[in-house]
């Protein structure tokens, strides 16, 4: 957190009362959202209410043993993050303190009152200037490039709140983040590190309509419910339905340049899994370690609740900074319900009048403010960048009518509904194809036609139709049994079964199946469509359904997913299907 | 400087409000002496420059406005020593087994700090519980928190005891001593009946498990507020034994429902804005500070594995207690009323049950190469059989195809042969998986679409062959 470096304080007050994470102080001269240090130990907090001489503060750390009468010091700065090289391949807590630094300083358990800057102030980086003396630069412009990790070139930008002007001096070589690398004629100095308040979106020129998909390598998402680069999606689901695995899969395989993963109020072991797994995984596009394009923010459920409230803002501000460099950023927030609950907890400690189910009345406003920071943007330096936001929602009891799910659905354009029933029968990813939707389908179709196959949208529509028909037929089957249906409807059910089992299901833990390129997604579906056509021909020629599905090649439709050499396998399978089915008549 | 006040202004439920003139820290421990000379302990819930709100662990009856209030200047500490093993303590940590006073090596605050996620080690060591429904389908690993979701009158305690008795980590071939793989058991009882407590104690004594156990007993007639402290004492002890003394610790907390009721009681007494069903809005955070104290730490020998037990009011898993628990813990084991009335022991319903850490704890080198596929296939086949049962009720078995009938038979066999094993049978993982193959082999080979073809070749029991073998 950047306040670690701002040692000056502007005013001092005295603690009046302490109740869990909420502390009040008197005689403190503060503005809303100023960062303050509370008590003898200097616990970090933020001003959230001012009433006469009484200031209310939410504290980002445990408050045991803090007593009235202890001092409160105001930094006079809003909660900000440090932005600069070194954020990739890092793991932060909710207020951007690097967790590995904290571990060095206080051991395996998180103590309190320890502060650390968000990026290493000592480390030097190789600064390669992109401007020369005499060049005119304005806010947001790239002045140099720093090789941050093996996959990411970090662009050093003129801070958005600078006026800009003529470059009077440029350095080149190795510097730490606080050394001035570029000076302007109006006296403005540019370092590799800049700060930005987390609750304020970084400026852009305009928001554009996204037309490129964020390819996730997950068949059900890419194939049926695609999200655009710059889009928003919500994954609601009861516990055990696979939210986190889906989020992890997206973080691993989505074709974004940068991934910011916010673990908000979730399990400690899950974050550890990410920390242990990601460095070993390779980016399918570049072959470089996934961690080199990833920034993790971990505020586990037992870490202080106020820091949970701030962690999504920390995450999105970091995402915006990389967007300004022209990158496509994907931000995963797991889970936004925990964030909403943190708001509720703080709000109830403030004794605010509650809205629905005890959530504060400003819940909807906060959610939409957050999701609106996503999008495809034209940046102030003329480049284009995007932020895609994928928020997991954990509705109590799996009931989607609760306020967080409902308010989220009003904003996001992709809805990936996880289904406990599917999870119970180990159909993963357990995304319910009847309930989910994506409003990006039409605007992304041209991309699919151009980059995957001309026919892709039609084949997809065929699959959707079969699944719809299956849903209707299942209702009848529930009453009278499958054998009471006419033969052609029985065959439709079989085709639908292969779409479900062979195509929609995907094993995240299988080396090959975990990532499915768009071509494979398409080809697999055409194989099932091919089977469907051949099977219906056979049926018309008088072959009974039992014999059709008994053909040797048919169960192989369920094995396409694990084939590395899928093109050969699928084309051979199509031939086998034709041959073997035609033999029957 | 223990200042004594006689300034109590209000007594309400479990809370006492007192005026003060010197600052008192949040969470600090308080002693209240009643006129009859009894000492009650409590904790500061809210502190301002003029008054404090105190939550009294042992109940407020007998306290009057003239009682004296002493602030001890520290937060609640647990006295810790290896000698705690074999002892029985009250819900607030006092010995109640008639043994000697505890001479602590050190004391630690019971609130406990969060483990830094970068310092954690991801849990992936298989724990063999000897229960097929757990080992085969919902594998437990060291450092996991896996609750048992149960209902009133169901045999969750028998299952918990069976796990406590049988749990081992299969040692590798190069043979360490047997002691190394045994668990120390920390048992935290919150509001359980004296009868249930006896059941646990008898079992501990009968099997000699008491020697490697620490028992914290808060019974149903003990003060409710004390229950908010009991699990924290238990977990502080567990962390000490695990991370300082190198034990592998299994913590059983029962019944979390009583704990949550106590939280609600305090919340109501403080006139807080209630969340769902009257439970406080911070219950998720509060529960997380308990459940998240399971795990492993890099470079430390021991581990803390948690099995909290909760009885779902009305068997409803959308009730806030199981719901919030499920969002924090790494899976859950469901005890099922129907299976119980059919006499299945243990009556575990595997379909809604889940172990999130299973995937990394099983497979070649850990359990067996076919474990993941077998368990997937058993799940899928059992789910299909379950579905068909509804249909049978309407159309009868004759109306179903041969394939459907096979699935129905499979579902029955799965319950009566795989899940059913009795509380005294200890099946090792090979037995469990072989049993799974035996059941799966009743289905045609082509139906086994979740299993790798090579594994089918190796393990599938050809029906004819099986018959001739008989």
Total helices of chain A: the number is 15
CATH class of the largest domain in chain B, named: Alpha Beta
How many domains comprise the coordinates of chain B? 3
Helix content of chain B: 25-40%
End-to-end distance of chain B, in Å?
A: 82 Å
As a percent range, the share of helical residues of chain A equals 25-40%
β-strand amount of chain A: 15-25%
Largest sheet report of chain B: 10 strands, mixed
Derived from helix and strand composition plus strand pairing, the structural class of chain B reads: alpha/beta
CATH-defined fold name of the largest domain in chain B? Rossmann fold
Radius of gyration of chain B: 25 Å
Number of strands of chain B: 21
Which regions of chain A have little confidence, pLDDT < 50, spanning 5+ residues? 1-5
Strand content of chain B: 15-25%
User: Low-confidence runs of chain B (pLDDT<50, min 5 residues)?
Assistant: 172-180, 465-470
Number of helices of chain B: 14
Tell me, what's the shape of chain B? elongated
Derived structural class of chain A: alpha+beta
Task: Give a summary of the structure in a few sentences.
The complex is a heterodimer of chains A (585) and B (470). Chain A is an alpha+beta fold and 585 residues long. Chain A is built from 15 helices and 26 strands.
Structure description:
The complex is a heterodimer of chains A (585) and B (470). By secondary structure, chain A is of the alpha+beta class. In chain A, 32% of the residues lie in helices and 23% in strands. Chain A is built from 15 helices and 26 strands. In chain A, strands 8, 18, 19, 20, 21, 22, 23, 24, 25 and 26 form a ten-stranded mixed β-sheet that branches. In chain A, a hairpin with a 5-residue loop joins strand 23 (375-378) and strand 24 (384-393). In chain A, helix 7 crosses helix 8, helix 11 crosses helix 12 (487-504) and helix 13 (518-540) packs parallel to helix 15. Chain B has 470 residues and is of the alpha/beta class. Chain B has three domains: 3-75, Thrombin, subunit H (Beta Barrel), CATH 2.40.10; 78-361, Rossmann fold, CATH 3.40.50; 371-466, no CATH class. Chain B is 33% helix and 23% strand. Chain B has helices at residues 132-135, 156-166, 194-206, 230-244, 256-269, 283-291, 320-328, 337-341, 358-361, 371-395, 402-419, 429-440, 453-459, 463-469, and strands at residues 4-5, 8-12, 15-19, 28-33, 39-48, 51-56, 68-75, 77-80, 88-90, 106-109, 120-121, 126-127, 140-141, 148-150, 184-192, 213-219, 248-254, 295-297, 303-311, 331-335, 348-355. In chain B, strands 9, 11, 14, 15, 16, 17, 18, 19, 20 and 21 form a ten-stranded mixed β-sheet that branches. A seven-stranded antiparallel β-sheet of chain B has the order 1-7-4-5-6-3-2, with no helix packed on it. A two-stranded antiparallel sheet of chain B has the order 8-10. The termini of chain B are far apart. The model of chain B is unreliable at 172-180 and 465-470 (pLDDT under 50). The chains are: A alpha+beta (585), B alpha/beta (470). Chains A and B meet through strand 1, helix 1, helix 4, helix 6 and helix 9 of A and strand 5, strand 11, helix 6, helix 7 and strand 21 of B.
